[in-house]
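Question (not urgent): is this output format expected?
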Amino acid sequence: MLDHHEISEDEKDNERVINAWKFGIDGGVEICAGGMAYLAAKALSDENEDLSSVAVVSALGDRQDQGGRKSFTGKNFEIANTAKKLGITVTNVPVYSTKAVAQFTMALLLEMCHHVGNHNNAVQSGDWTKSIDFSFWNTPLIELSGKRMGIIGFGKIGQETAKIAQAFGLNILAYNRSKNMELVSDTCKYAELDELLKSSDIISLHCPLSESTQGMINKDTISKMKDGVMIINTSRGGLINENDLKESLNSGKVAKAAVDVVSIEPIKADNPLLKAKNCIITPHIAWAPKESRSRLMQMAAENLDAYLKDSPINVVNL
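Got this back:
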């Protein structure tokens, strides 16, 4: 079992993980489990490797990696299909972090509305002690009730986010390739992308990264949005053209943005969003509460146990 490992800018670090996979293969293991299937695939795709001993690969995740590379678990199963040709079963871990990511999405939204961290720091610095009144605020505060939230990608995480958002009084516009009309209500309806962009006060991204969604938030789509829109991304950094978002934040077209993901992770020092006004950036932690990580490891272990009992589950390359 390898620890969860994200794609790194440090090629030596990536090579360490690839070599660890190869060590397991060379050692005759039958089961490989690890975090970033892309790196495992590089080891498994080496034509010089003898893969005859490998029976199953269990990927710790349920989506593409943040670079948009095909993982064992995205919509494109090219690597998994290659493994299938080699007689290797590939499993994933679905929906282990749905509630955590939805919760974090709302945490980012509430921070943009109330700037809790900023006001706590002001109090700790003595600003409230010096205040001539019983209350003060450093930034405008925003009430959510009655506003419209556009959710791009209305799968499990998008739906869970909508459920919480509606409890705050938000009206939901959802954009998705397929529609489940049972989810439509007085406060939640489907919309075409252009309508969502034009009508939403808040836009939250929950769609996968693909060729069709790469850079979908850009100067052209932003130009269709309301002045003062707020944007949240807890999905994949590549969905946003980061330079275009920076320019829109600095001009005021976009009032605020909050992102838990960026195009290259860990974030590079020259990422445009580091120079953007009113932009919250967190280090890809929406998925990571202890409960989610425990669930992830438990489900991965269950995948392997089921395979050993000749009843594999969560197989992505049938």
